[in-house]
Amino acid sequence: MIRETLDELVRSLSLDPQVRAVGLSSDPLPLRREDGDLDLFVYCDEVPDAKDRALRYPAALREDPAFRSRVFVSGFWGDADYAEMGGIETWIMYFRARDALLDFNAIAEGSRPSRVDGCFYPTGRLAMFKNMRVLYDADSFLLGLQTRLAAYPPLLKEAAIRDSLDELEDEEDLLRASGRGDVVFFHAAVDAAVDAFLRLLYAANDTLFPSRKRVEERIAAFPLKPRDCHARILAVFRLGCDAATLAAAFAEFRSLKEELLALIGKGKAALD
Fold first, then answer.
1. SS3 for the chain, per residue?
2. pLDDT tens digits along 119-159
3. Do 193 and 236 form a contact (C-beta atoms < 8 A)?
4. What is the spatial distance between Cα 80 and Cα 249, in angstroms, rounded to a whole number?
């Protein structure tokens, strides 16, 4: 049911002369609500008007009471419609292809190596393109981007490593929080520090950092990592919940960091 409706939707979208490519970032295809959302990215010369594009949707989608047109317009997530496909939350997000290309180039050239607005990772957008399931690609727009991501963009790698190293060198907040026994302050400081650690770890392993989801399985596949890396990250968080063990949490994090820096020669080997 879901696959058939999705195929019908993509066939219909492909008939719009403004649409250049359609990709699916949800992999594997969610078949149950608990499996997650279905995220469809539509790249166009010009984004179709909300009313016009809704007419192209299968009747099963646009006539469903759950359907909502133009739920939001976002620089990160496009001009989006919401539907439900076989009970799965479905987001159909439209972007101008030329804007997406400019954004891709800026990220690949290293202008935005860390997260922005608190939760969005620009490197995650490139990871999405790299792993996207291409459903329609009239002029190889998506294929061209994926080809460029066959190897980690060198300018981005350099920027990601330098940016995360700069953050990791600043231990002032961790020192103050652990010294004062301030759990809430420590929580904020260690969250930022672990974020920088993960971005460095991923970049050193030539892996685009997508988000902090499924970190354990991804770290397990890395050849370059501190021993018992994921378990020790969990220990940092666990110890960071009690004022009496904040110093131990900081010591464990510093040990993790120093081990990673030693493995990559403080970034030099990764940048060569």
1. CHHHHHHHHHHHHHCCCCEEEEEECCCCCCCCHHHCCEEEEEEECCCCCHHHHHCCCCHHHHCCCCCEEEEEEECCCEEEEEEEECCEEEEEEEEEHHHHHHHHHHHHCCCCCCCECCCECHHHHHHHHHHCEEEEECCCHHHHHHHHCCCCCHHHHHHHHHHHHHHHHCCHHHHHHHHHCCHHHHHHHHHHHHHHHHHHHHHHCCCCCCCCCCHHHHHHCCCCCCCCHHHHHHHHHHHCCCHHHHHHHHHHHHHHHHHHHHHCHHHHHHHC
2. 789 999 999 999 999 999 999 999 999 999 999 999 999 99
3. no
4. 42
Do 138 and 13 form a contact (C-beta atoms < 8 A)?
no
Contact predicate 39/47, CB 8 Å: no
Question: Per residue in 26-85, pLDDT tens?
Answer: 777 777 777 788 999 999 999 999 999 999 999 889 899 999 999 999 988 999 999 998
What's the pLDDT at 84?
92
CA pair distance 267, 269, nearest whole angstrom: 6
pTM: 0.89
